[in-house]
Amino acid sequence: MTAQRETIEEKQKKSSKTKERQFKGLSLTERKQARREKLIEAGIEAYGTHGFFAVTVKDICNEAKLTERYFYESFKKSEDLFQTIFLKLIDQLQHNVMQAIMQASTDPKKMIEDGLTALLTTLKENPHMARIIYIDAMLVQELHNQATIHETMTRFDRMIQAFVMLMMPHLDRSEHEISLVATGLNGYVTQIAIRWVVNDFNQSMEDVLSSCSIVFLSLLNTFSEKEKKIKKEDSSL
C-alpha cells in the first residue's frame, strides 16, 4: 500500500514538473525560439534605425523587452545576431525578386522590368532592410571574415545568371561567360542600390529603375543581335 502511494506521488511530481515546463502553452524549446525571434525583430528595428555600430546588446534587449541573459541564450555576440538578420533579409529580398520574375510574362523586357521593380519596391517599402543590407553589412568586418558577403553576392550572381538564361533560352554562350556577365550585372545594380539607399531614396523609383534597366536591355539587344547574325550565317550555308 505504501509502495503504491509512493508511486502515485512520484507520478504527481512528474506531472507537476511537466506542467512547470509549459508556460502559456509553450514548451521550453518553443519559448526559447520565441525569444530568439523577438531578438531578431528587435535587431531589425534597432540596426535598421540607428545602424549596427550605434546599437548595443542592451539596446537590443530593451527593444525586445528581454533581459541580457536571454540574448546570450541565442547569440554569442552582436555580430552573430546581425549576421542572422542579414541572411534572413537577403532571403526575403531574393524571394520577392524571383517570385516577380517567375510571375512575369515570357517577354524578356517585361521580365527585366518586373524583376528590378520588385527589388526596388522591396527596398523602398522596407528601409530597415535596405539600410542593413546595403549600408551596415558592407561595414561589418565579421561578415567579410566569414565570407558571408561573398557568398551572398555569389547567390545573386547565380540568380541573375538563371534570369539571363530564362530570358534567352537559346543563347549561344558558354556558362562561364554568362556567369561573368551575371557578376557584372549584379555589381552594377548593387552600386546603384547602395547610392539610392545612402541618399535616403531621394531619386524617384522611375529614374532608378530606368538606370538599372539600361544595362540589362543593352545586354538583351547585344545578345539578340548576335543570335540573329549567327542564325543568318547558318541559313546562308
From TrEMBL:
<keyword id="KW-0238">DNA-binding</keyword>
<feature type="DNA-binding region" description="H-T-H motif">
    <location>
        <begin position="56"/>
        <end position="75"/>
    </location>
</feature>
<dbReference type="GO" id="GO:0003677">
    <property type="term" value="F:DNA binding"/>
</dbReference>
<feature type="domain" description="HTH tetR-type">
    <location>
        <begin position="33"/>
        <end position="93"/>
    </location>
</feature>
<protein>
    <submittedName>
        <fullName>Transcriptional regulator BetI</fullName>
    </submittedName>
</protein>
<dbReference type="Pfam" id="PF00440">
    <property type="entry name" value="TetR_N"/>
</dbReference>
<dbReference type="InterPro" id="IPR009057">
    <property type="entry name" value="Homeodomain-like_sf"/>
</dbReference>
<dbReference type="InterPro" id="IPR001647">
    <property type="entry name" value="HTH_TetR"/>
</dbReference>
<feature type="region of interest" description="Disordered">
    <location>
        <begin position="1"/>
        <end position="24"/>
    </location>
</feature>
<dbReference type="InterPro" id="IPR050624">
    <property type="entry name" value="HTH-type_Tx_Regulator"/>
</dbReference>
